[in-house]
Structures are given as structure tokens and as C-alpha cells.
Design a protein that fits this description.
The structure is a single chain. By secondary structure, the protein is of the alpha+beta class. The chain has helices at residues 2-9, 15-18, 20-58, 106-111, 116-122, and strands at 65-68, 73-80, 83-87, 92-96, 100-103. It has a five-stranded antiparallel β-sheet with strand order 4-3-2-1-5, with helices on one face. The radius of gyration is 30 Å and the shape is elongated. The termini are far apart.
Length: 123
């Protein structure tokens, strides 16, 4: 019984060993294709968004209207290193640069037309 297992395992020499290199490359092709898909669909766009966000944070100045990652909308009134003081109307708060989600344009928000659904609810 043990000898049949040994014969079934075969030897590593012969004609089968020459094709082993091509088989190894063929098995790597799907793996490389999956990596390429992940790179172009996930990794690269995320790196691009991170770069744009860093540039936006570097360009912040006094008077800029911003939105925090928590959804607060305010205007920058003071900058002390990485600490920003925001005017929220009646309240002033201090946040770090990392808490800034984006720049808010109040003029564009005011010019935005109302949705049909919100206009119907008002009637």
C-alpha cells in the first residue's frame, strides 16, 4: 500500500518539470490582474482624494466658510497653528485642521433652486 502512494507521487524530473515554469507564471496572471483592478478602482482614487484634501487644508485662511466632518458650518475667525477658531453664529468653537471636511460656499447654497418635493410640502 505504501509503495502505491510513492509511485503516485511521481518523480520531479522528466518532461513535466519543463512546463512547470510556464504553469507558475500562468497562475500568477489572475493575481496580478486582481491587484491591477484594486489599484485603479480603490487605491489610486483614494490617494488622489487624500492629496486634494491636504491641499484644501493648507489653503484655509481667515474668513473661509467651512464644514466640519461632524456637519457644523462656520467661518474661520482665527488660526493658531493647527487649531482653528470657528464662528458658528452665536457660538465660537476651536477645532483642529483634521476636523475640517470641506469648504462651504454659502452663495452657491443660496442660489440653489428648491426641489419640487420641498416646494410641495410648503404649500
Amino acid at each position: 500500500m505504501l509503495t502505491s502512494i510513492a509511485y503516485a507521487a511521481g518523480s520531479s524530473g522528466g518532461a513535466g518539470a519543463a512546463g512547470g515554469g510556464a504553469g507558475a507564471f500562468a497562475s500568477l496572471v489572475p493575481l496580478l490582474l486582481m491587484f491591477a483592478v484594486f489599484w485603479f478602482l480603490l487605491i489610486r482614487p483614494q490617494q488622489k482624494r487624500n492629496k486634494e484634501h491636504k491641499q484644501m487644508l493648507a489653503s484655509l485662511g481667515k474668513g473661509t466658510h467651512i464644514v466640519t466632518v461632524g456637519g457644523l458650518i462656520g467661518r474661520i475667525v482665527d488660526i493658531e497653528g493647527d487649531i482653528l477658531t470657528l464662528d458658528l453664529g452665536e457660538t465660537k468653537i476651536k477645532v483642529t485642521r483634521g476636523a475640517i471636511g470641506g469648504i462651504f460656499d454659502p452663495k452657491a447654497q443660496a442660489e440653489k433652486p428648491a426641489d419640487d418635493k420641498s416646494a410641495e410640502k410648503k404649500k
